[in-house]
Amino acid sequence: MKLGEKLKYLRETEGELRGMGRAISQQEMVRALKSETGAALSQSYLSQIESGARPHMTNTTRQVLAKFFKVHPGYLVDDPEGYHVELLSDARTLEDKLDLWLISGAERFRRDAELRQALLAVSRHADSRRCLLLLNAVLETPGLVDRLFEVLKEREGENIPPGLKPASLSARIGTAEAVPLQKRSRRM
User: According to the CATH classification, is domain 3-75 in 1.10.150.20?
Assistant: First the structure.
């Protein structure tokens, strides 16, 4: 990933984390940088970095942006040719690998805000592995998904996001969800 793409992604993430429901604009970022770090960067400078017109930035700018976005300064460079985020060091724990994988998935699905938010929420949980195992148990328990949606609907009214509303049985025909648990083959 190029530096400009990373900066755009960080602006999208920052906007979501700030509850904006969208990317923080370059101009909003300039104002936030000034008020939160005291650093002054211009919107045109940020635009040049994002567009690739300015492929590198000063170390000072890298430090300021890393502090603002709460990332390691080394993240704010172009990835080497052929670099893949899936390749992780064996020195990391299983939980770290899982969290990085979830964050990577959130990045890949950044245009689907609900899915992206769900992946990031699991990655931020103290025990993301257990969260995924719980999800598996919910999916493997007949009728539990629909019952959980009913409970959420009762508690929150109609505030369930459209992507989470239970599909009717006719909409599930031909999917694994329409097949009773006993008839599903189990993978080990």
Answer: no
